Amino acid sequence: MAVVIDTALKLVFDEILKLVVTQTMQSDKIKTQLKRLETTLKRIEPIFFEGRRLSKVLDRPEEETTMFIFHLEKGKELVVNCSRIKFWNVFQKIVYSNKLIRLNNELLWFFQIELQGNMMSTSMRSLIGIYDLSAKLDKVLSAVTTHALANRHLCRVPRLPEHIVGFNVHLQELKRRLLNYDTQVLVVSGPGGCGKTTLAKMLCHDNEIKEVFGENILYVTVSRQSSFKIIINNIFEHYGKNHCEFQTDEEARNQLENLINGMGPKNMLLVLDDMWAESESIIHDLMFQTPGYKVLVTSRFLFPRFNSSTHALGLLNDEDARTLLCNFAFPSDGIPNVTDDLVNKTVRLCMGLPLALSVVGASLCGQPVLKWKTTLKKWSESGSILESNSSMLLSLKSSVDALDELPIVKECFLDLGSFPEDKRISAMVLIDMWVELYNLDNEGMYTSENLLELSLRNLINLVPIRKYAGELDGYCNELYVTQHGLLRELVIHMSSQEPVVERKRLFIEIHRNEFPTWWLAHKEQLINARILSISTDEAFYSNWYDLHAPKVEVLALNIRSKDYTLPEFIKRMGQLKVLIVTSYSDYPSQLHNLSFIECLSNLRTIRFEHVALSTIQPIFAIKNLRKVSFVMCEIGDALMSCFTESPYIKSNITDLEFDMCYDMKELPSGLCNLVHLRKLSITNCQELDVLPKGLESLSNLEILRLHCCTKLQELPESIGSLCNLSVIDISDCLSISVLPEEIGELCGLRVLKMDGCSGLQELPRSISKLSQLEDVICDEETSYSWMEFEGVIRNLKIHVVEDDRFESFMKIVK
């Protein structure tokens, strides 16, 4: 059938082209327009038929074929009519000349916009289909920070820092040793903060190294709790082999060896960054007698087994140390605006430690001479010399002491010890904590400033989730926070100076089921901490001992085991305001005994991340609860059963978030009975295809975020009843083809984010009634539809952003 259509289409195309050529040669009446039409037809013919061939291969609909035939038939009729124009009829010449111009423009428009747009849509939809077939894991290619794309590059090499000084000699030596045929494992060892990670990144980004190893440079950051199987699983996920279950370490090792050998003659470099002393056996287990396979390890520890293959990384010399400090203290040009004596004394007290130089330099950036002098005096009086790891921590303490003038910011920095090392922290988690602990604004303005202040002082790194992390709808929703491991150690060191029972922050790590000695010896003793963080590994059995901590306001549970039971002593935490439960296991951890939180009347914020919940009923029984977040959770069945059993739940929740909950296919209609909701965020939920129709019950809703719900097909008509709605985010909702006419009734709408909505055909005319609309964020194609409303909506500003999905598509194609 397709062959018949192609033959007929080719005949129509050839016929009109022949007519145009004939008329061009025989007539001088409208020769210019006919010649232009001939050129257009010859240009678009080969590209159109090639596009049609690709559409058939991909089994895509052929709407563009029907439209193209329509234009050709229309053109054929017009050219025939042109041949009948009498030489004396000037009026008809003008009329048909304009018609030929219009036809030529329509063909160009069809080719440039409609056909190429459909071809791009075809490519994108086909690519998404391929990902969907891959075990439903890579379900979306709509944003650069989607879960599937992140897994695909799980072991990619991090970017280089901006200022690098004094590593060239080390780099050349490392390259020489690594490329030596006899070297299989190379260890870079040195004190914390001396630049081991920076040197490893430089090596990976070196052109000579990239020529040898190509794309097979894998970079794995190894935390203290990383097991052999976790490392292997990360490598497999990097190559798209998701959810590999290894019963034993030996099986994992064998599977990795098979993977490497199966790659043929390709070379591979595996970088293990920040290995701990107890992980020496992991290095040995990752050694294979495979040509071209190399392992690079960085560690602050020495491994006796690999003494002969260790490269010791020392501290910077005075010249390089001064250059590095000045780069951070005087970022505009690196030239000091204080005396050389002050700079040199500061450099000497940092004793060549790159991390100390960068952090101290940043803390003194823009400070007056007096600040430099008082800082030096404090260091001199404390006698901090970087002779051992502990003394280095004391030296870095000066960067935290610089926050004395900003006491809340300092407290915020010290709170970062609540989370595991080398893990990204959602900025919103920190915001939720700080709002409750320090009575800050719950809109996030001042808390965002605290994050920025810490970032400017190089105490944390802010990592945007996707390119457009605008401030129009919650800047911190689009950010992760990372922290150098040495700075985390500094936080823990500073927080542990007082006796356990008197500490403001209590950070506990439980390996297997070995509880701290003080916990077992003083089970009945009162703990006065406001923040309690308990981290457990994959071997923990949830056999809890009692703990009396009635003053705890923030409880962070960092877990790795498949099954996890909440401790019963939670019930006695009467002052608890924030509960954060995060699983760092390969699969969502099954959470038990959620009923323990029912009686916590002061609990205001709950965040569950990467856990599986069989029930959520107790959550809605907490009368003062205001915010609940489910991130990467298995919650679909629990959500439906909760509102089926109790459809008229009365709750005071104002902020409800679902992010990357892939098993959530629909929202129960009973959710619309949460009448106090002000913010509803449903993002990256790939299986969600419909919203409940009774949205009009959410009369207090102000923000509706539906980012990257790729199967969601429409917004319900009832959305027009939400008169308080001020922000809508439907960015990267690929399947939404039309907005309801009722959207024009949103009299309070100020912000509309709709970039990446490739399926949206046109805007409803009722858009013109959105008199309060100020900001529209969209891609370039959609912006053309909005331009006609610029003169109608007085304060409208159109922000055009790049399409992250297209960039992601091009990366994979390349």
TrEMBL record:
SUPFAM superfamilies assigned: P-loop containing nucleoside triphosphate hydrolases, RNI-like
GO terms of biological process kind: defense response
A GO term for molecular function: ADP binding
Domain RPW8: 1-149
TM regions (residue ranges): none
Keywords: Leucine-rich repeat, Plant defense, Repeat
Source organism superkingdom: Eukaryota
UniProt cross-references to Pfam families, sorted A to Z: NB-ARC, RPW8
InterPro entries assigned: Apaf_helical, LRR_dom_sf, NB-ARC, P-loop_NTPase, Powdery_mildew-R_dom, WH-like_DNA-bd_sf
PANTHER family: PLANT BROAD-SPECTRUM MILDEW RESISTANCE PROTEIN RPW8, POWDERY MILDEW RESISTANCE PROTEIN, RPW8
Similarity annotation: Belongs to the disease resistance NB-LRR family.
Protein's UniProt name: Putative NB-ARC
UniProt organism field: Helianthus annuus
